[in-house]
Amino acid sequence: MKIRIAFQTGCLLLAAGLIFSLNAQNQGMTQLATDGNAPFQLSGDWKAAGSVTLHPDKASFVKTTPSTDKNTSLILGKTGAKAAVALGVGDIVLKMEFMLAPGTNAALTLPGGYAIRLNDSWKSPRLDANVSAGIGALAPLQNAAKAPGLWQSITVQFKRAGQTTAAQIEKLVLNGVTVQENAFLSAPPTTETALSLEVVSGMAAFRNVFYQLLNDTRPVALRKLSYQLYKAGNDKPKELLAENLLKKDTTSILTREWGMGNNSYYLLYDGQLDVAQEADYTFQLAYMSNAALEIDGKTVLPYQWNDFLQNYVPVTVHLTKGLHPFRLHHHKFTWRRPGLGMFVATQGVRQYPLHVTSSLPEPTPIPTIEVTANGKAELVRSFIQREGEKSKRTHCLSVGTPEGIHYSLDLNRGSILQFWKGGFANVTEMWYERGEPQILHPMGSAILTAGQTDFAVLNDLNAAWPDSSVDLSFKGYRLNPAGIPTLTYHTSNGDITDEIAPENGGLTRTITGNLPNTYIRLVAGKSISLLEKGLYEIDGQRYYVRIDPKNKPVVRTVKGQQELLLPLTGSLHYSLIW
C-alpha cells in the first residue's frame, strides 16, 4: 500500500469563497433560459429541445424531444455554434449542466475572455490543460469528466482582474469534484463582457444555467457592541451567574480575544445589526466548542458543538432595513483552540466577515492520508458512512486501481456501495488522532447505489427486493496478478463468485453461479431507459449499464423504484459506465 500524506492548510477562502457553499441549491441565483430565445444570442447551428439523447460511442447519434418550458429546455449545438449573453465584467458564480457527444470540444468563456474547456476527456490517459476544466495552461487537479451522452455539472466562482491583481478562479467544481481552486489566470482580460457557450467541434447540449453577480458592498454592520466574559467549565452552564462574571465592557470590534486564551470561558456579545437593505441574509459562524446566535430575540442558531475551525455553521434569516438586536454566545472549552468568526452574505453580495481578522486564526494543518494505487490494485477494509444512514457499514472493502477507477463493497450484503474515478481514498479518519471514525472517503465524486444486497431469491417476480439476505455469507477472496479480488459468497443453494475490474473506461462485473430462482440486481433507480439493445441509461443520463445484447433482463417497477434484474444461471457480465 502506498500512502501519500498531504496537508489541508488555511486555503479555505474564509472571507470570499464561502459564498460558494451558499449557492449549493441555486439560492439567490438567476436562471438563464435555454429555450432558443433571449437572453442568449445564438449564432451557428443550434436547436432548442425539451430533452436530448446522445450515445457514448457514436458521435452522430442524437435524439431530441420538443421544447415546452423555457426553464427546463436546453440548447443543442454543433461545430461552430455559439451562445452569448452580456452580463458585464464582474465577479460571478455560475452553475450549469452540459452533455457532450464523443470527441466533442466545447468551451465556457467567462466575462473577460477566460475560456474553460469542456472536452470529451473521460478516457484521457494524461492530466494536462486539454482535459475538461482546463483553463489556458492550467490543468485541473484531476480528470473528473464523465462519459459522452451523460449530463455533467460545472460550478465556478470567478473574481475579475483588478488594477493590480490578476483574475482568479476561486473555485471550480466539475461533476462534484473540486478541480481548480485559488487559481490565478496569467492572461490579461479582454474587453469581452459576455458569458458564452461555444461548440468548438462536435456536438454539445447545455441546460440549467444559473448565475449570480457578486459585489463587495457591505449591507450589514455592527452597532452598539458590548460583551460579558464569564468563568465557565466544560459543561454548559444552566445560567450565567453574576458571581462568575469576570469582565464586561463596550467594544467596537467582534473578537474572541476578550476571552481567556486556552482556558474555558463563556463570552456573550450583545449589539445591533444595522441592515441597509431588506433581504435574506446568510450568517455563518466559525468557532470551536459551542456557540449560539439570537436575532430579534429569537434563537436562529441553537447552542451546538463544532469540531474544527474548518467547519462553518450557517443560518439564513430574513431581515428588514433598520436595526436588529442580536446576541452571540461562545462557550470555549479548555482543550479547543480559541477562534470565533461570523460571516454574512446575501444575493449579489460577496461574503464578508463581521469579526476582526485576528479573531479567527489560520486553521491548524490537518494531514490528509491518501491511498494511491501503484502498479497493482489496492484493497482497504474500513467502515463507510452513507448519507442519510444513522449507522456505519462495518464490513466494507474498497478497491483502488491504477486506472483510476474505484469501488466499495458491502461484504455483508454482497453489494456495490459506490463507484468513482480520480484519486482513490482519503483514510485520514482511520489514522488521524484517535482514528475513531474508521471511515474511508472517496477522493472523487462517488455514484451511490441503493445499498441493498445485489443477490436475492425471488420466487415471485413481483416481490420486493430485500435489504439483505440471511442466506448469504462472505467467505473470502483471491487476487489475480493485477491485484483485483474475486470474492466468494456462500448460500444454501451453492457458491457465488464475484469479480469487478476496470475495463474500457468503466467497471465490468463478472458473477458466476447457478442457483435456482436467484437474481442479480444490476441497478435500482428512479428511471431506467433503454438506449439501444444491451445499453441502458440510469436516473436521467447519470450513468450507463451495458449488458450482453443476448441477455433477457427483467425491468420492473416496485414501490416507485425501477430495477434491472438478470437470473443467475452460469456466468454473467455487465458494465457500469460513467
From TrEMBL:
Residues 1-26 form the signal peptide. Keywords: Signal. Residues 73-209 form the 3-keto-alpha-glucoside-1,2-lyase/3-keto-2-hydroxy-glucal hydratase domain. It holds the Pfam family 3keto-disac_hyd. Coiled coil: none annotated. The keyword Signal applies. InterPro entries: AL/BT2_dom. This is DUF1080 domain-containing protein. It comes from Runella salmonicolor.
